[in-house]
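Saturday, quiet lab. Running sequence design on the C-alpha cells for the scaffold JK sent over.
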C-alpha cells in the first residue's frame, strides 16, 4: 500500500522536475546505510540489556531462599551492595539502550529528511536563478516532499519496545527496606579475635556460654514452638538435642540465631541478653549449619568465603581442611573454582554438609550450631560428616540437633525435646538408665549404634 503511494508521489514529482526527484531519493540509501551502520551497536545494547535483566532475575530467585543464610552470616550489607550495584548497572544500560533506540527511531530519520530537504531547496533555488524552474513549481514540488518522506519513514521505522522488558526495580528496593531487622545494641568482641595460643603453640578458641531462662515461643498459629525452656551450655561444652520430628529442635536454633525472639523468658550469650545484644554481633559469634542448606550458584571458594570480598585462599582451605572437604574439592578439575550450581545441587548430601561446616568455620565462631539434615546419608558418608564435625568443634561450644543419634553419642549432655518442652536432660548413659524417650529413640536406632548394656 505504502509502496503504491510512494510510486504515485514520485511520478508526480518527476513530472514537475526529474533532477530534483533524484535528489529527493538520496534520502533512501542514506537512511538504509545509517540504519545498517547502527544495527550492530543497537544489538549489542539489546544483548547487554537482556543479560543484566537475567542477572537480576537469577539473583532474586536465590535471594529469598538464601535469606536465612544471608542473616546468619551478617551479610545484609553485602547483599544490599550487590543489589545496589546491579541497580546502577541496570539503570545505566537501560538509559543507554533507550537513548540509542530513540535516536534511531526519531532523530536519525528526521535528520536525514532535513538534510535531503535542504539539498532539494538549495538545488531548486539554483535552478530558479538559472531560469530552469519556476517558484510555483518548487512550491508544488515541496508539497510532495513530506508525503514521500512519511512513506520512507514508515518503511524504515524501527519499533523498539523496551518498556515491556523493564522490571520494576524500585519494588525490590522496598523489599530490602521491609526485611531489615532492628540494628543497634551491645557488641561482643568479634569472635575471630578470641583465639588463644596455648603453651604448646596450638591455636584454640574460647567457646561462648549460652543460657536459656524459661524461654517460651509460639509461631502465632496456636502451635507450640518452645515451652518454658531452661538450660545452660558452658563454654567448650558439646550439647546434643534430640526429639521427634516437629518437637521444636530447629526452633531452638532459630531462637539462638535471633531469627525469632521469645515471647517470654530470656536467652543470653556470654551473659548478655540477646534483646540487648546487636544481632550483627550475635551472629558474628555463631557458625550455623542449618537443616536446609543453601549455597549460592557460585564457586566453592566464594561460597566458603561468603560474604567476604577479599580472597584469603589460606583461610579458605584451612576451613575446608577442618571440615574434611578439602580433599574432595582438590580432586575436582577446577578445584576451589568449581561452580556448584543453584542451592549446591551438584553436590551430594554429605559434601553439602561438610561444605556448610567449612563455611561456618571460616567465621572462626565461638559457638557452632548444627541442625542436622534429615536426608539419609550412607554409613561411610555419615562417618565423614561426623569426623568433620568432631574436628570442627574442637575448642568451641557446640549445640547439635541430631536425627541420627550417632552424631551426638559423644555429647557432654543431651537435651530430649518433645512438643516444645525439655523432657529429659543428661549424659547418654544417664538418659539410657532413665529408660525414657531417649531410651526409646536409642532402641529404635540401635542397629547402627555401639552396643551399650541397657
Ligand atoms: N515458620 C513457622 N511458622 C509456623 N509454624 C512453624 C514454623 N516453623 C516451625 N513451625 C512449627 O513449630 C513446630 C516445631 O518445629 P521445628 O521446625 O522446630 O521442629 P523440629 O524439631 O526441628 O522438627 P524436624 O525434626 O522435623 O526438623 C512444628 O509443629 C512446626 O510445624
Ligand atoms: Mg528441624
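Result came back. Writing it out in full:
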Amino acid at each position: 500500500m505504502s509502496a503504491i503511494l510512494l510510486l504515485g508521489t514520485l511520478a508526480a514529482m518527476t513530472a514537475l522536475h526529474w533532477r530534483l526527484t533524484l535528489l529527493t531519493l538520496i534520502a533512501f540509501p542514506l537512511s538504509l546505510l545509517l540504519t545498517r551502520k547502527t544495527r550492530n551497536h543497537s544489538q549489542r545494547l539489546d544483548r547487554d540489556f537482556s543479560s543484566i535483566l537475567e542477572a537480576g532475575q537469577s539473583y532474586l530467585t536465590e535471594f529469598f531462599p538464601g535469606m536465612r543464610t544471608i542473616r546468619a552470616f551478617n551479610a545484609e550489607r553485602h547483599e544490599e551492595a550487590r543489589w545496589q550495584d546491579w541497580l546502577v548497572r541496570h539503570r545505566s544500560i537501560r538509559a543507554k539502550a533507550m537513548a540509542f533506540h530513540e535516536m534511531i527511531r526519531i532523530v536519525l530519520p528526521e535528520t536525514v529528511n532535513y538534510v535531503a530537504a535542504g539539498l532539494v531547496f538549495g538545488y531548486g533555488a539554483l535552478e530558479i536563478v538559472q531560469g530552469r524552474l519556476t517558484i510555483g513549481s518548487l512550491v508544488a514540488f515541496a508539497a510532495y516532499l513530506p508525503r514521500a518522506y512519511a512513506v520512507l519513514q514508515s518503511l524504515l521505522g524501527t519499533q523498539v519496545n523496551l518498556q515491556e522488558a523493564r522490571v520494576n526495580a524500585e519494588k525490590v528496593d522496598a523489599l530490602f527496606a521491609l526485611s531489615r531487622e532492628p540494628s543497634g545494641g551491645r557488641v561482643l568482641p568479634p569472635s575471630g579475635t578470641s583465639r588463644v595460643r596455648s603453651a604448646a603453640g596450638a591455636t584454640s578458641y574460647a567457646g561462648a556460654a549460652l543460657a536459656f531462662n524459661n524461654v517460651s515461643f509460639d509461631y502465632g498459629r496456636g502451635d507450640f514452638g518452645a515451652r518454658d525452656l531452661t538450660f545452660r551450655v558452658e563454654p567448650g561444652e558439646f550439647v546434643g538435642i534430640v526429639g521427634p520430628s516437629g518437637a521444636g529442635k530447629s526452633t531452638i536454633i532459630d531462637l539462638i540465631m535471633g531469627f525469632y525472639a521469645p515471647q517470654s523468658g530470656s536467652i543470653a550469650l556470654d551473659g548478655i541478653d540477646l534483646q540487648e545484644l546487636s544481632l550483627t554481633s550475635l551472629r558474628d559469634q555463631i557458625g550455623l549449619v542449618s537443616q536446609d542448606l543453601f549455597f549460592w550458584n557460585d564457586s566453592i571458594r566464594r561460597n566458603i568465603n561468603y560474604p567476604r570480598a577479599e580472597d584469603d585462599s589460606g583461610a579458605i582451605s584451612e576451613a575446608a581442611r577442618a571440615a574434611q572437604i578439602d580433599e574432595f574439592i582438590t580432586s575436582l578439575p577446577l578445584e576451589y573454582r568449581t561452580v556448584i550450581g543453584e542451592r549446591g545441587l551438584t553436590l551430594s548430601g554429605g559434601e553439602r554438609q561438610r561444605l556448610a561446616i567449612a563455611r561456618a568455620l571460616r567465621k572462626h565462631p565461638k559457638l557452632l550450631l548444627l541442625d542436622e539434615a534429615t536426608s539419609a546419608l550412607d554409613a561411610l558418608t555419615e562417618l565423614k560428616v561426623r569426623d568433620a564435625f568432631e574436628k570442627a568443634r574442637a575448642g568451641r561450644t557446640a549445640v547439635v540437633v541430631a536425627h541420627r543419634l550417632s552424631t551426638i553419642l559423644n555429647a557432654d549432655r543431651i537435651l530430649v525435646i518433645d512438643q516444645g518442652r525439655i523432657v529429659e536432660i543428661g549424659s547418654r548413659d544417664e538418659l539410657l538408665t532413665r529408660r525414657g524417650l531417649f531410651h526409646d529413640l536409642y532402641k529404635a536406632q540401635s542397629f547402627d549404634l555401639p552396643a551399650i548394656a541397657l
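Notes for JK: DSSP finds 17 helices and twelve strands in the chain. The mean pLDDT is 83. Ask whether to fix the surface positions before the next round.
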